[in-house]
Amino acid sequence: MRVIRQLSTSRRLLQSLIQKQKYQATTYARPHDLILSRGKNAMLYDDVNNKEYIDFTAGIAVTALGHANPQVADIMCKQSQKLIHSSNLYYNEECLKLSENLVEATKSFGGQYDSSRVFLCNSGTEANEAALKFAKRYGILKNPSKQGIISFENSFHGRTIGALSVTSNPKYREPFGSLIPGVEFLNINDELTKLDQQIGSSKDKVAGLIVEPIQGEGGVFPIPLDTLIGLKKICEDNDVIVIYDEIQCGLGRSGKLWAHSYLPKEAHPDIFTTAKALGNGFPIAATITNEKVNSILKVGDHGTTYGGNPLGSAIGNYVVDVIADQKFLDQVVDKGSIITDRLRKLQKRFPEQIKDVRGKGLMIGCDFSEAPSKIVEAARDAGLLIITAGKTTVRFVPALTIENDLLEKGLDIFERAVEKVYN
Ligand SMILES: Cc1ncc(COP(=O)(O)O)c(C=O)c1O
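YS: structure for the whole thing
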């Protein structure tokens, strides 16, 4: 009797929550009967429907240290009782510590060797906006027509007009008409000689080049190191500022602190951007520059009300301290190998359907011969949340702290979902 009463109460709650969905702007496609209530590390719970899920999405590569991380919760509680926000009219302790922390950890963990300055903001898109403005300013000071940006096919850099202007997907761009002028999309798979010729021929019009060292939304494509090394050389020869967008692939996701930590110092960026994992779910982001870029900036060139607020910065300090640790990074690589080994075995069983397994660390793509929407649905029905990337790829980006047995359990569900769809 009690069970029946509970069931009808939760059905009523579900119906009332579904009713409220009509107030959401029409921008997302979400399953209407999955409503999250809480999480714990790599688990998510829907208490309305009494269901639980292994989460291989981590809020799209955000909750790197797990859902409801107790240390993050403790920092939020303590910092919010001291100071949440004070604006950029004044310095605050946590913001100062985070900027130093990012620069010093970057240099200690093989990232941007000449790392120097940090601009703190609130989202990945905003971090890229700052990077684009800094690069344009650098170019304009050399020559007023040197203000274009080079980006790449298959890239994703965000949704504001500036970030969208350097995002290649026509589906996101075309509904919005004119975007910022002077953006050119090249093909990252072209020979370096061709890229050299393309960039060199427009050097008087190009201020910056933006690239994800591992393309995320486009389908999880790690850019070959030689390509990035070659691109940096071409940009230096043509006085073009190099921006690496590490919003998805940075902060331990690739198995190193930054995806560009795999590169020799000659290929390090002038600017790189980070967001997502930096706040473990709290909105905070950073644009990190060398002195070559910082030296052209003047007071008033850029700003944001919430950037570097004490609450976000305190969380960021904790996240950087945990991830900038060789042992932590090594276990990311080990967990990544568990996924790739199992996916490669699965590929042998389904060679017609699984075309490729690729990625680095815990950013892995499993590429299918068709859109994998039925697999995503079958996995969800069986208790695993996964996301797609590009048109045909399933993306694996779980919390970097996911327990090994949960990882294996999630992979069991994924295998069964593939079997269900293709057997
Ligand atoms: C590589 C990359 N750049 C930029 C962004 C935009 O970040 P945000 O959604 O925080 O604005 C994303 C988000 O998915 C991303 O993956």
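YS: worth flagging: The longest helix spans residues 326-349.
IM: good catch. Also The chain has two domains: 12-69+327-422, 83-324.
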